[in-house]
Amino acid sequence: MAWLLFLKAYDDLEEQREILNADHDSLIEDAFRWRTWARDEKLTGDDLLAFVNDKLIPHLKALPKSESGLSAGDVIAGIFQGIDNRMRSGYQLRELVSELNKIHFDSADDIHTMARLYESMLRQVRDAAGDSGEFYTPRPVIRFMVQQVDPKLGDIVLDPAAGTGGFLIESLEYLRERNQAISVPQSEKLHASLRGFEKKSLPYLLSTMNMLLHDVDSPRISLGNSLQALMANRSASAQVDIVLTNPPFGGAESGDISKGFPKEFQTAETAWLFLYLVIETLRPGGRCGIVVPNNVLVESEIGARFKRKLFETCNVHTVVRLPDGVFAPYTDIPSNIIFFEKGAPTEAVWFYQISPPLGRKKYTKTRPMQTDEFAECSEWWGGLGRSNRTETDNAWRVTAEELVHSNYNLDLRSPVSLADLAHRPHGELLQELIAAEEEILSLLNGLHRALEDGK
């Protein structure tokens, strides 16, 4: 479905370009353009299968390549190198293609359809959302991170775990909004400055298509494991100005990947490896916003080594504690955003606790986090210089000396909320504990039933 949607979206994009430019010439021959074969309802059954398997996909794989390797033809040919048609019924394929013909990628809302598709796949495909620790990043979280890191024209922006391209797309829109009179050369430079890596073919395809739909003709997204590719090339020329990313939670890398890291930082845990990679990839003065699970804040053994390196080489200026349920329905693991700049050691860290709306304890799939719920934190932030910050019920400052003394334990709560906790009625606290135990028991019973059913 993903590669079919790609072809449909690309054809819609070309139709828009033809309206704006009568001389537009497609890279894909007429017989293989979506509008030609997909809209021909008579092409079905074995004839459709033969066309797709023996003509369409081979044609797309063989699109002419450019010397730079960065043309739209290079991108499409690269995508289809790893594509095979897995449908065995030409009649079912015709039904699917006919349904896809009803989708039109001609509005801003439709552009995000791919991300929504991937989101639904993550829920259903255990391979994608379970073992690899991949979780779709909610748009409000992405937007907040981009705003606070504040990319400028000329900055090279990298997402080493790009997924469907959310951080790169948001960075692109952020820069376009703040540079309305951008010239054609500046626009080309901007497109070339947005870079990503994605090791799975499905999100790679979706992120590439997402970039193409945003008029980036030659997306700089690579199919591969950034932990391997970027660690193999740590020259100054390979470093970037900004990293915005939500690396996999709880994933496990092979020994071959971890061997590419210095001995004291070798581990299978992807979150730690990505944290080290980001530090090494940033230029001096480079800025980062990275989503991490709670265990990264708490871990005091091997995690302390990574955090010591982070504190000694970077200014960890802000940790934003996210409310529970932000990543529902994938996981209830508490998450955080760490913001830092490379080049000077950390002197003090500001913590900011974002609370769920009044009357709610957590977010859910049906009641997710909204963009305006970051407004108070954005106002408190103090711009790029982070000036005039003050301690509030939700914001507090801890010196690096205190954090080093605690063996880099960053799992801290607001002193005000802790004081409030000490004065809350015992019966209320016990009721919350009972509710938590009941939820745990329910999960354990569900797991037990699944095991009995052979799942």
UniProtKB/TrEMBL annotation:
E.C. designation(s): 2.1.1.72
Top EC class, one word: transferase
Isomerase among keywords: no
Residues in DNA methylase adenine-specific domain copies: 111-418
Record flagged with keyword Methyltransferase: yes
UniProt xrefs under Gene3D superfamilies: 1.20.1260.30, Vaccinia Virus protein VP39
Protein name: site-specific DNA-methyltransferase (adenine-specific)
Organism of this sequence: Micromonospora ureilytica
Lineage: Bacteria, Bacillati, Actinomycetota, Actinomycetes, Micromonosporales
